[in-house]
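User: I'm writing a tutorial on reading structure tokens. Could you give me a worked example: one chain, its sequence, then its tokens, then a sentence or two explaining what the tokens reveal?
Assistant: Sure. Here is the example chain.
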Amino acid sequence: MDLLTPKRPASNEECYAVFAHKDMRYDGALFLGVSSTGIFCRPGCPARLPKFENSSFYDSAADALAAGFRACKRCHPAGGETALIKTLIALVEDQGETKISDDALLERGINPSTARRQFLARFGMSFKNYARARRLGRASNIIRQGGSALDAQLDAGFESASGFRSAYTKFFGAAPTKGHPDPLNIDWLETPLGRMIAITDSRALYLLEFTNRKNMRRQFDRIRKVQRRAILPGRTSITEQIEAELSEYFAGRLTSFRTPLATSGTAFQRQTWKALQTIPHGETRSYAELAAMIGKPKAVRAVASANANNGLALIIPCHRVISKNGGLGGYAGGLARKRDLLDLEAKLEPK
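And here are its predicted structure tokens:
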């Protein structure tokens, strides 16, 4: 299979032709949003081609989700790794300490820009940064298990000790010596309402957000600063637990989450988040009511800000807070998604 992706079509008419002819060379690099159904698809989708006037085009699944479209259930445009991503991940694991250059990718028939684009859409980082994170993660494991800094340096593929120390310290926030905290793990989970990011360790869940929410980078930086730990690609038992609970939640069989949480916020924020978790499944409260619940009825704006920045979507149910007049209010994950969540919960009475 030729993994080289051609240049993006210059016009919407040409983009439409890609889907009309089911041109799989653009798979993962071009997405079709259908205004009449509210879904978006990948090239080659078996569903009937929509009318041109109902079509819009996006460079990534994240962009289509941000525009309010849902992933098509027939072609799963937002789900799972593409063949290219699977190939690249296997390459990172097989190569170990070897840095993978653009020339090495081209020799395998892989366009470096395509690799970068697909990794950014899937993981929020470039392929080179992903590979670097994996090498440094292996180095960290060696040190934590009693190995020497030299062994870790060589395993990570650094010829210079000073270069390795600088990269390691920048990434982990600590020099390559024994005793610094284990890194946190980040993974991506598929849901019916879009992909979510989970950050965990073996004890708790630190972040759960939809990938296209606003100010995601700020959430990452806050966790790194508070925890003083690097964030590396990977899964833990907590990742498995929240993934299973999300599946049950979206199937309408779960009304409360049991995954252990690790929140980081001010005393006021934690007080607000605790109150949020008392709003029953299937019910809503206004921002003013939430402020009254914590005994600070005049702090409506501060409550709204704390509500928006809890970092644990669905589990700390900020989507259950609406405007005083009955409107949806705001939601960092998008108002269409907020409406869908409220509709989902309204169909199932809490047990």
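What the tokens reveal: The radius of gyration is 22 Å. The first strand starts at residue 31 and ends at 34.
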